[in-house]
Specification:
With 414 residues, this protein is an alpha/beta fold. It is built from 19 helices and twelve strands. The longest helix is centred in the middle third of the chain and has 23 residues.
């Protein structure tokens, strides 16, 4: 693996990854690798990754970019230009892995297909993220994370129960399909590098990792597929609850605060019934065991909801915590930012960003040996590292970089 000049490193220090990514999935994968110490070189078009323009603006920049591109060295190239292709292939020689999320076939059109990449570095690990995968009848279809969530079955399950509303099926409020695919891609990169560098002597060839947004989401559906395959049942959306356990739902307190109560094991249900001062729930055959509670969940939720409505949210939370019942109010991001547990574990931390000043970043997941390293860098301006990377790794002199910029091949220094 290549040297990593970042101080203090991390478990992936020494790994260098080239990112040919845009929007969410591939950049999220490389962010995870970068958080764990890898050196990430991100290639974006001269106009910048589209995510730079997403969300609210502060000082002319999207705050999300600070996190999305942290621990990355950003260079700007027009990949449609042959000179840019040659630069990428030159960088590949110095990298252990490459992560991309173009539509299948697009990199081949640019002269950067797997054959060309492996010719530049035979032991390169290539992670390819796409909507439907690199083959199959849907491979050429356009897709974003939300499409993966729909085809993967999640959008159906996150909806309200059938017959309760005519509103569109509810989606998760973030690009979950993209992020899950990014996690799988990062895992695939690490697994392939382990095989390459540790399972063979001498080190073996690289690998191609194929991650589909649709398959990434589909893999999360727990028992839905085996239930359908053996019983013919199609799991239906259940709103705030879940079809396999009860009680587990959100209940509105007197002051309008929603509090989640997950008392779906028999011991927990006994604690809840005792706290509610309704011992008759424990004698009722409709609620004897999880299967019975699931079959009669509407009645059970109504009983718990009526009880919860007698408390303000804070008092309800305190009573449930005192009974050691898994529970919490529904957090907003403001609640997360102020939460003492997140703060104590540095999952919410203040970071100095040259584009924004002092701002909040989420911490690193997972922790390794208890470490929670601060970002080595925050998301920079477009082309901020073009000179340093191309001059340092490829030895391109300033006059050549100036010429390439004048010709529109690259963008330098923001």
């Amino acid at each position: 693996m290549q040297a990593n000049d970042a101080p203090n490193g991390g478990p992936l220090a020494g790994l260098r990854v080239l990112e040919l990514g845009h929007f969410v999935a591939a950049p999220f994968a490389t962010r995870l690798l970068g958080d764990l110490g890898a050196e990430i070189i991100k290639v974006e078009p001269p106009g910048g990754d589209p995510v730079r323009q997403w969300g609210a603006r502060h000082n002319g920049h999207a705050p999300w970019w600070s996190v999305h591109a942290r621990n990355k060295r950003c260079i700007a190239l027009d990949l449609k230009r042959p000179e840019a292709r040659d630069i990428v292939l030159g960088l590949v020689k110095h990298c252990d892995a490459l992560v991309e999320n173009f539509r299948p076939g697009q990199l081949e059109k640019l002269g950067l297909g797997a054959e060309a990449l492996k010719a530049a570095r035979p032991d390169l690990v290539i992670a390819r993220i796409s909507g439907y995968g690199q083959d199959g009848p849907y491979r050429d279809r356009a897709a974003f994370g939300v499409i993966g969530e729909a085809i993967g079955g999640l959008r159906h399950l996150t909806d309200h129960p059938p017959g309760t509303t005519d509103l569109p099926p509810v989606r998760v409020g973030v690009s979950l399909g993209d992020s899950v695919a990014g996690i799988y891609a990062a895992l695939g990169v690490v697994a392939a590098l382990w095989r390459r560098d540790h399972r063979q002597a001498p080190p073996g060839p690289g690998a191609e990792i194929d991650v589909a947004l649709t398959e990434s989401v589909f893999s999360l559906l727990e028992g839905a597929l085996p239930d359908y395959g053996t019983l013919g049942t199609v799991r239906q959306p259940s709103g705030g609850g879940i079809a396999t356990a009860a009680p587990t739902n959100a209940y509105r307190a007197r002051d309008g605060v929603w509090v989640l109560i997950a008392a779906n094991s028999d011991p927990l249900f006994r604690r809840l019934a005792t706290l509610m001062e309704q011992p008759e729930l424990l004698e009722d055959p409709r609620f004897a065991g999880n299967q019975a509670r699931v079959a009669n969940v509407a009645e059970l939720d109504a009983r718990i909801g009526a009880w919860a409505a007698g408390f303000d949210g804070a008092a309800l939370e305190a009573a449930l915590a005192g009974a050691d019942i898994p529970s919490t109010r529904v957090f907003t991001v403001a609640d997360c930012a102020a939460d003492p547990q997140f703060r104590a574990r540095q999952m919410v931390r203040e970071v100095e960003d040259p584009l924004h000043g002092t701002m909040l970043h989420p911490g690193v997941v997972p922790r390794v040996d208890g470490a929670m390293p601060p970002p080595r860098s925050t998301g920079p301006e477009v082309g901020a590292d073009t000179d340093a990377v191309l001059g340092g790794l490829l030895g391109l002199p300033p006059e050549q970089l100036e010429r390439l910029e004048a010709e529109g091949v690259l963008r330098r220094n923001g």
